[in-house]
Design brief:
A hairpin with a 4-residue loop joins β2 and β3. The two termini are about 25 Å apart. This protein is α/β, with parallel strands linked by helices. The mean pLDDT is about 95. Helix content is about 30%, strand content about 30%. The longest helix is centred in the C-terminal third of the chain and has 13 residues. The strands form 2 sheets. A 6-stranded mixed beta sheet has the order 2-3-1-4-11-5. The structure holds 1-O-pyrophosphono-5-O-phosphono-alpha-D-ribofuranose.
Amino acid sequence: MGINIALTKGRLEKETIKILERAGMDCTELKDKGRKLVFQDGKEEIKYFLVKSNDALTYVEHGVADIAVVGKDTILEGSKNYYEVLDLNIGKCKFIVAAMPKTTLYDSVSHIKIASKYPNVAREYFKKRHMDVEVIKIEGSVELAPILGLCDGIVDIMETGTTLKENGLVVLDEICNLSARVIVNKASFKMKQEEITKFIDKVESVL
Ligand code: PRP
């Protein structure tokens, strides 16, 4: 039985392909993809497709993909109806709280607004601190929001810290470390146990 694997395109793409190649998978098509979205490894009977991170979760939850490689940031923000089986140790970054310098976020008595691409993560973080904040969902370049006065602070991912620095923002707190994970559809794990275990073992052996 063949398996379908959703790979997150963008940041994680190159490093994921490197790992797959080291694990002996044929990634010729993936490396020279053009505008193609589905790729076949004939030898291993694996079909790969490249998707946005949130969609990777959706495809796995619906069983269209048996496996996906996706960032822990997406996992923490999204639904959890799948098995998380492997940490690939790539795409390492952190969830952080940041703001313009001298922002007194934690002892503020006034209404606090937080912008984030990760509203659930942001809400949970402040709830744990018994802080009642308004979370505003932003789709990208979140650093812009406090600069323009949309919010008091942001919850976002930081990799090198360059974007924060170049836009004059400072880190107020580090929430947790993040990296790419392998997730598996629950039913696939039973139905295609042999193929999935083989794939995971191969990948694990080169980490
Ligand atoms: C992410 C994140 C930061 C930036 C951090 O955005 O939201 O903006 O990367 O990286 P750095 O610490 O290395 O500077 P991404 O590049 O994914 O784009 P987006 O904001 O358009 O989603």
